[in-house]
Amino acid sequence: MTEEANNYWIIELYDDETANVSIMSEEEAKAMKKINDDFKDWQMAPCSKFSEEDMIERAEDKGFEHDPW
C-alpha cells in the first residue's frame, strides 16, 4: 500500500452552506476531527475506498453545495 492510500478525504463545511473536499494525511484528518466539535463522521473517508466525486455527493446529499474554491 502506498503512502497516498493512507490519506483521507475531508469535507470542510462553511457557514454559507458550501463545502470543499480536500486530502489530508490520516494524522491530520484525525486531528481535525478531534479539534472541531462540529465535525461529523460522514465528513471523513479513506482515499483508498472513496473518490473525490463520492465525497462531493456526500456533501450535496447533506444539503451543501460543492465549492472547489
Mean pLDDT across every amino acid position: 91
What is the radius of gyration computed over CA atoms, rounded to a whole number of angstroms?
12 Å
Q: Strand count, sense and closure of the main sheet?
A: 4 strands, mixed
Number of strands: 4
Strand content: 25-35%
Q: Tell me the structural class.
A: alpha+beta
Fraction in helix? 25-40%
Number of helices: 2
- Helix/strand order: EEHEHE
Low-confidence stretches: none
**End-to-end Cα distance:** 31 Å
Spatial strand order of the main sheet: 3-1-2-4
Q: What is the global morphology?
A: globular
Structural commentary:
By secondary structure, the chain is α+β, with helices and mostly antiparallel strands. It has 2 helices and 4 strands, in the order ββαβαβ. It has helices at residues 26-35, 52-61; strands at 8-13, 18-24, 44-46, 65-66. It has a 4-stranded mixed sheet. Strand 1 and strand 2 form a beta hairpin. The termini are far apart.
Which short descriptors sum up this protein?
69 residues, alpha+beta, globular
Produce a short descriptive summary.
With 69 residues, this protein is α+β, with helices and mostly antiparallel strands. Helices cover 29% and strands 26% of the residues.
Strand-helix topology:
Blueprint: E1 8-13, E2 18-24, H1 26-35, E3 44-46, H2 52-61, E4 65-66
Parallel strand pairs: 2-4
Antiparallel strand pairs: 1-2, 1-3
